[in-house]
Design brief:
alpha/beta, single chain, 12 strands, 12 helices
Length: about 350
């Protein structure tokens, strides 16, 4: 079944008016009499006329739409970020167009191209784990498209960025495990090149050295797709469990890796936390309901989405070129639960 929207030309033919007269009547132009406006508006409303947003954007130079690119929507963190974005965008009269990359650079490229084809006014983006080259984004910024990064950001593009305090989160998670009596603490994280990996790993290492522990690279495992593949997380865990001195605790650096590791430990009949303690970066609302309840570093995802959108709108609405940019670092919070506290 095809849906054919009524157009200005359709209204003009039905009312025996010119398309120009109908267009002006719908935009409440002073050139058109109140009687004609009333006839046109009532007919348009009765026949479910809707303005063409693409045509309007071409005419006005603005689409009142914001493009969003996230790695995956089914991640609690990103869904909360999107809620924050929408809370600001809709209030300011902007629509949002949401796309997901599934951690693929090629899909990221396709999504960005599709969004710019829709004449978006600005772009909010968190990079995929496969994205090393950001030339496609630099080109768009050079052409005048406002871009704001959040969570996974690019160091090479000069623009506004909103991130969590990943270093502090990694530091406090590791420090908590040390203070809880764990001595062989491993770290399973995302690809080494991503911004969140570098920052969380730095926090992990600093906590170890501050407490007099040596950093053992054998205890650090990278998941090249950010834990999207259960097999890569399982392989990382099995390599850790096969070490001569098995880790007695694991700090995991993302939602997907954390929940996968917890499930795999259960599958292997390894008691959490008495045999292996677990702390993750996790924004799931179910952390307290997991078995055991999950100790996790929480990121203010909703507020990150709000702030990123406010910064993007400031770029969109600026009458002059913006040359000074800000990286906003938002606080994390460690919630201690049973997965990291031995009986």
């Amino acid at each position: 079944m095809n849906f054919n929207a009524i157009t200005i030309s359709d209204i003009a033919r039905a009312l025996n008016l010119s398309a120009s007269t109908v267009s002006k009547a719908l935009s409440d132009s002073y050139e058109i009499s109140e009687k004609t406006k009333k006839i046109v508006v009532e007919y348009a409303r009765a026949n479910n006329y809707r303005p063409n947003p693409i045509a309007q954007s071409l005419k006005k130079g603005k689409s009142k739409s914001i493009g969003i690119v996230v790695p995956t929507i089914d991640n609690q963190f990103f869904s909360q970020v999107i809620n924050g974005i929408e809370s600001v965008a809709y209030d300011q009269g902007y629509n949002v167009i949401i796309t997901q990359t599934h951690e693929s650079y090629d899909v990221e490229l396709l999504n960005v191209n599709a969004l710019t084809y829709r004449s978006i006014d600005g772009l909010l983006l968190s990079l995929s784990t496969e994205t090393f080259n950001v030339d496609h984004l630099q080109k768009l910024q050079n052409q005048g498209l406002p871009i704001v990064f959040f969570d996974r950001v690019s160091d090479t593009i000069n623009t506004h960025k909103v991130i969590a305090d990943n270093f502090k989160g990694g530091y406090e998670a590791t420090l908590h495990l040390i203070d809880s009596g764990f001595k062989h603490i491993a770290h399973i994280t995302s690809p080494a090149h991503t911004s969140i990996t570098r920052e969380r790993l730095a926090g992990y290492k600093k906590a170890l050295t501050d407490k007099g522990f040596k950093v053992d690279e054998r205890y650090i495992k990278y998941c090249s797709h950010g834990g999207k593949s259960m097999a890569e997380t399982e392989n990382a865990l099995d390599e850790l469990l096969a070490l001569p001195t098995r880790p007695d605790a694991i700090f995991t650096a993302s939602d997907r890796i954390t929940t996968t590791v917890l499930g795999l430990l259960h599958k292997r009949n390894i008691n959490v936390p008495n045999e292996v303690g677990l702390v993750g970066f996790n924004n799931t609302n179910l952390a307290e309901l997991l078995n055991p309840a999950l100790t996790a570093v929480h990121q203010p995802a909703f507020d990150m989405g709000k702030k990123a959108t406010e910064m993007l709108l400031s770029l969109i609405k600026s009458r002059y070129p913006v040359t000074e940019f800000e990286t906003v670092v938002m606080p994390t919070e460690l919630f201690v639960r049973k997965s990291s506290v031995r009986d």
